[in-house]
Amino acid sequence: MFLSQLREGQTALIDRIGGNGALRRRILEMGIVRGTEVYVEKYAPLKDPLELIVKGYHVSLRVEEAAKISVTPVK
Asked: What is the pTM of this model?
């Protein structure tokens, strides 16, 4: 499952960060690394971008960027 497929209020663990180059490096620098728990706070009114809570702070990602991050939902 990908991060872009989660609904508001869901929590997941990061499995794999796809992509390459500057985008991948930027995502890793924001603290979105393997094993990190992320919470989907909300989506913007037009469903892009989405706001996440990662390690206690808020991060916004475009849906196309979130689609490159594999996650496992936490029940």
From this structure: 0.87
Strands 11-17 and 37-43: antiparallel
What band does 17 get if pLDDT is binned at 50, 70 and 90? very high
Can you tell me the distance from the alpha carbon of 43 to that of 52, in angstroms, rounded to the nearest whole number? 9
Sign of the CA dihedral running 69, 19, 47, 61: positive
60, 51 in Cβ contact below 8 A? Answer: yes
Which candidate, 38, 59, 62, places its Cα nearest to that of 49? 62
**Domains in the chain and their CATH numbers?**
3-74 (2.30.30.90)
The two structure tokens encoding residue 52: 């996440």
CA distance 2 to 71: 6
